Hints:
single chain, 452 residues, alpha/beta, Four Helix Bundle (Hemerythrin (Met), subunit A), Rossmann fold, 434 Repressor (Amino-terminal Domain), 8-stranded mixed β-sheet, 8 strands, 9% strand
Amino acid sequence: MLDKLGSALKKTLSKIAGAVFVDNSLIDQICEELKRSMLEADIPLDIIQGLIEKIKEQSKKDQKGIEKREQLLKLIHDELTNIIGKGEKKIKPDKKAKPYIIMLAGLYGAGKTTAAAKLALYYSKRGFKTCVLGLDVHRPAAPEQLQQMAEKAKVTSLIDKDEKNVLAIYEKYKSKIKKFDLCIVDTAGRDALSKDLIDEITLLKKEIKPRQTFLVIAADIGQTARKQAKTFNEVGITGVIVTRLDGTAKGGGALASCTETGANVVFIGTGEKVQDIETFDPSGFVSRLLGMGDLKALLEKVKTVAEEQQQEQVERIKKGKLTLTDFCDQIKTMQKMGPMDKIAGMVPGLGNLGKMGGVSKKIPEMFGAQEEKIKRWKFAIDSMTKKEKEDPDVLDSSRITRVSKGSHVPTNEIREMIKQYKLVKEFSSTKNQKMDQRMMQKIAKKFGKKLF
């Protein structure tokens, strides 16, 4: 997300880190580079000017025990965080006061329906019995789309394909909603901001009395988000969901504009899949842009995906009874987390490799190649017999050749997969042993690997 801005910011930080002296000349250069890169990200000029002035003013002050270089790096991080968001706002539904209702509002094309399903999945994975209610009666096939998205999220959808009165639909399902901990309400949008839209949102808020009302805004609208956030905020928006942050250079404008109006961004959409949603942590987001990683977001993603695994499979792995079928399931689970290069960007250190002579350019290629290899491994496993999947030790040369012909996967890749499988199994069998460096080297040596 915001790759262009992130690359420019990393380049700026590298210049600071590598400078012999941090003087006024360097600070002026840094400010010009920041201004240029943030303008390209569609962040409003007045907000950028405020940032530049603050950096120049604060950089003149010395802090005891902190080098000028470190002071400047921290200042840039903190000020960018203030621009993009002034603090994380966690939404914790109260099960005792069910149903806890979250209503979504926004224009056509912002992604409200998809956001509704994503939110429903997000909260259902955290122990909330969740449903989605379709109140978009204007857009063709809106109820059907919500139903399909709800099925992907494995949550209940409450829709009416014939009724055109939103209050009538709400009254129809009012008693059913009370059986759920949480209800996500999808409302109708308009092509542009209008009195009709604001009146409808105001009416629904009065009747439904949602605990939260989120405005859904697409990242690619850039600075136009300022007007939307300001207008919707007048009817009581409690937060903003910014969608499509994975494929736009203008997301900075949307994030900054929303924050300026006082409507805090609470969630961001980071992809097309139903699990591609994150709580918005401004500090973590900026850290990721600067190449410092965001372990918090990564751990949250891992937690969400891990909860989809069957307990029986987990127990088998703990006991060291890992089969190739389990290994295949682990691969599928890993793929659900998204592209590996996106995950790598969340890990501190992998996102900021600019000082390693072009290594950063090779990272996407490395991860892309690995993903393709994992796909071929799955083809090979699908070509095996049940016995071969459950007991890979029986895979001799003749069997491997047969599997290779059936799956069109080279024999050397199948052998590599088996070696990786055995390595994973060996690690799982040492769960009750002390995993020190000697143990790791022993396992690595056994499988022809070297650990650094």
